[in-house]
Design goal:
alpha+beta; Glutaredoxin; Wheat Germ Agglutinin (Isolectin 2), domain 1; 19 strands; binds zinc ion
Length: about 425
């Protein structure tokens, strides 16, 4: 087996380390982590000649990402694609960066096929001991995981454990992953949010319009200035999205209707599509009464990053002044329907008070048509934290009717009384 081959250099490395040559040790920070007693190299990238190797000593002086991942796990494959783009950008601008893949694949074939996609280095699959030691040292609890090591940081003072998050959030701009760099990025981000306007959010150098109800109609972004705007991140392939959209449409229409009677106030929604192709975008957007960013527009990606959108559907509310009001638009719609408008803290506080007030007149316990046990009224204080309503499948928090026996939980407004007391039997 190739991996077991030793050349002269590897022998000398092992000797210097065991001889306690301090000068050598101080320059071989990565050897103690990545080498084994009979291996001083890592496997090369896909572009290199088959089975080519890179000396671990060549990594000294570089920023190193130790990358724990596995081919069989979709979140790893998703991250892998993003990481490849970032890595290639960093390589092309000459950054002193390298990644070492530590595989959790099931077998050598899976490892090899995953490695095919990777332009960086790998610990050989057969070296279980090194892989285990790395997992233990960095206390890896889940994958994908990217641990970033700084050169000449022998005490691991500057090591970062949240590389995956940093790559998703900042891309190649996070390099060289030092605390100073990250503070600078956070500062920049804060300033961007402080100077945010609807124009800055939704336009780019190539485009100053968004799509109207028919995709051929262009609406200037300027027309949104002074309005409350919901950015609706959604996609037709996403089941919870398809379920939420009709509800949002009906609430949108009710809000618009109410605002007709008030002057100087308006509400609009802009669909930010995560659809996979133009035709699903067209058919999904065709069901919506509001505006949209064009399919595949680069602003879609930057908005998702900017607002740190972790999952869809997601509704982010921008106030008439262009600043973010809330990222919890979806929950507020679910909780309060059209009354949630304009989604401000003051409005939410008012609504919460109303709910508290209304709960006082609710029965302490009741039967629900969908469940055979009696349900008890609970609030946050009495064990009712956040929940998913078993009747409408939407989130809820605060007051709820809960089966203390099996955890079945519904919104107070989703309580449907039993048709008749007799039907409790046989459920
Ligand atoms: Zn419900
Ligand atoms: Zn029950």
């Amino acid at each position: 087996m190739k991996e077991m081959n030793l050349d002269d250099n590897s022998n000398s490395l092992v000797q210097t380390v065991t001889n306690g040559d301090s000068e050598k040790i101080s320059t071989s920070r990565f050897s103690s982590l990545l080498a084994s007693k009979d291996r001083d190299y890592l496997l090369c990238s896909r572009e290199a000649e088959a089975d080519q190797q890179v000396k671990i000593s060549d990594l000294e002086g570089k920023v190193i990402g130790i990358y724990f991942s596995a081919n069989w796990y979709p979140p790893c494959r998703n991250f892998n694609q993003v990481m490849i783009d970032v890595y290639e950008q960093l390589k092309s601008n000459g950054s002193n960066f390298e990644i070492v893949f530590v595989s959790s694949d099931e077998d050598l074939d899976a490892f090899n096929s995953y490695r095919e996609s990777m332009p960086w280095l790998s610990v050989p699959f057969s070296d279980l001991e090194t892989k285990k030691a790395l997992n233990r040292k960095f206390e890896v609890e889940g994958i994908p995981c990217l641990v970033i090591l700084q050169p000449d940081d022998n005490k691991d003072r500057a090591t970062l454990y949240d590389g995956v998050e940093l790559i998703y959030r900042y891309g190649f701009e996070a390099f060289p992953f030092t605390k100073e760099k990250l503070e600078e990025l956070q500062r920049e981000e804060r300033m961007k949010h402080e100077s945010q306007t609807v124009n800055k959010l939704l336009t780019n150098p190539e485009r100053d319009y968004i799509l109207g109800q028919t995709t051929t109609k262009e609406v200037p972004v300027d027309s949104l200035i002074g309005k409350t705007v919901g950015l609706y991140f959604s996609a037709q392939w996403c089941f919870p999205c398809v379920k939420f959209t009709p509800k949002l449409i009906s609430i949108y229409q009710k809000i618009k209707q109410t605002l007709k009677e008030k002057s100087g106030e308006d509400f609009e929604i802009v669909f930010v599509s995560n659809d996979r192709d133009q035709s699903s975008f067209d058919s999904y957007f065709g069901t919506m009464p509001w505006l949209a960013l064009p399919f595949g527009d680069p602003t879609i990606r930057s908005l998702a990053k900017y607002f740190d959108v972790q999952g869809i559907p997601c509704l982010i509310i921008i106030g008439p002044d262009g600043k973010t009001v809330t990222k919890q638009g979806r929950s507020l719609i679910n909780l309060y329907q059209e009354n949630a408008y304009p989604f401000t803290d003051a409005k939410v506080e008012l609504l919460e008070k109303e709910v508290e007030e209304a709960a006082k007149s609710l029965p302490r316990s009741e039967y629900h048509a969908g469940h055979r046990h009696e349900l008890t009224l609970v609030s946050e204080g009495t064990g009712g934290g956040p929940f998913i309503c078993c009747d409408c499948d939407e989130q809820g928090f605060g007051w709820a009717y809960q089966c203390l026996e099996c955890g079945y939980e519904v919104h107070p407004r989703c309580m449907r009384a039993l048709p008749s007391a007799g039907s409790i039997e046989g459920r």
